[in-house]
Amino acid sequence: MRIDEFEFTKIAGAILSALLLIFGTKTIIEMNVGHGAFKPGFTLPAPSEGGGAEAPGGAAPAAAETPEEAAKKIVALLPKANAENGKATFKKCASCHVAEKDKKATVGPNLWDVVNRKRASFPGFAYSDAMKAKGGEWSFEELAKFIHSPKTYIPGTKMVFAGLSSDTDEADLLAYLATLADTPVPLPK
Ligand code: HEC
Question: Where is this region: Disordered (predicted)?
C-alpha cells in the first residue's frame, strides 16, 4: 500500500500540530509559572496611605511608619536574623554597591566593613551634601533607618532606592553586612 502525497501531507500536518500544541503549551506554562524563582527586577513600593510623596518612581514603602519606628522593629529582629537570607537580599544592592575588601566604589560606596563605619567616609567617593552633613556612624540602627527608607531618612541622598518593605529581609540583610569585615560585627543578643 502506498501513501499518496495528500495522505503524507495530512500526517505530517497532524504531527506538526501536535508538536506545536505540546511545546506551545509548555512555553506558555513556563512563561506564566516560571521556575519558582521568578522575581521582579525591582520591588514596587507598597501602597501608602499617607501619600508618602517624594521618592522618585513611587512613594517610600510603608510611609505610614517612620524610619525610626521601623528601625526599632528591625533591630529587635537582629538576634534571630539569618545572614544567608541577607546575602540573597543584597542582590538588590549589588547593582550599585560592591562589598569586597579593597574594591573601588561603583555607583555607590563599597559596603565592605560598613557596620559601625563613619558615615560618608569611603575614600574617593563623592557623597551627597545631605549624606556628608548627617554625621555619625552606621550603627545597625542607623543602617536600618536608612535602608528602610533612604529618602525619608536622609532627604537629598543620591541613593536612588525605594527602601526595603520587609523588616525581616532587612534584619537578615544587616546580619549579612555584619559578616563583611575582617572581624565580623557581633549581632545584638
Ligand atoms: C541605584 C543605586 C543604589 C542601590 C540599588 C543601593 N544603593 Fe546604597 N548608595 C547608593 C549611592 C549613590 C550612595 C551614596 C549616597 C549619598 O551620598 O547620598 C549610597 C550609599 C549607601 C550607604 C552609605 C554608605 C557610606 O559609606 O556612608 C549605605 C549603607 C548603603 N548605600 C546601603 C545600601 C544597601 C544595603 C542597599 C540595598 C538594600 C543599597 N544601598 C542599594 C546607591 C545605591
Answer: 45-64
**162 CA to middle of ligand 1, Å?**
11
Cβ-count burial 20-42 (b if 16+ within 10 Å, e if not): eeeeeeeeeeeeeeeeeeeeeee
Answer for the pair 169, 88: CB distance below 8 angstroms, yes or no. Answer: no
Nearest Cα to Cα of residue 159 among 172, 169, 149: 149
Tell me the C-alpha to C-alpha distance, in Å, between residue 132 and each of 23, 118, 120.
57, 10, 6
Distance 32 CA to ligand 1 centre (A): 33
Alpha-carbon distances, residue 159 vs 163, 166, 181 (angstroms): 10, 19, 22
Q: How many Cα atoms occupy the beta-carbon half-sphere of 131 within 13 Å?
A: 19
- Chain centroid to CA 77: 18
Q: How confident is the prediction along the chain (189 residues), in pLDDT tens digits per residue?
A: 555 776 767 766 676 677 667 676 666 556 655 454 555 566 666 554 444 444 454 555 545 699 999 999 999 999 999 999 999 999 999 999 999 999 999 999 999 999 999 999 999 999 999 999 999 999 999 999 999 999 999 999 999 999 999 999 999 999 999 999 999 999 999
CA–centroid distance, residue 109 to ligand 1 (Å): 7
CA distance 60 to 90: 19
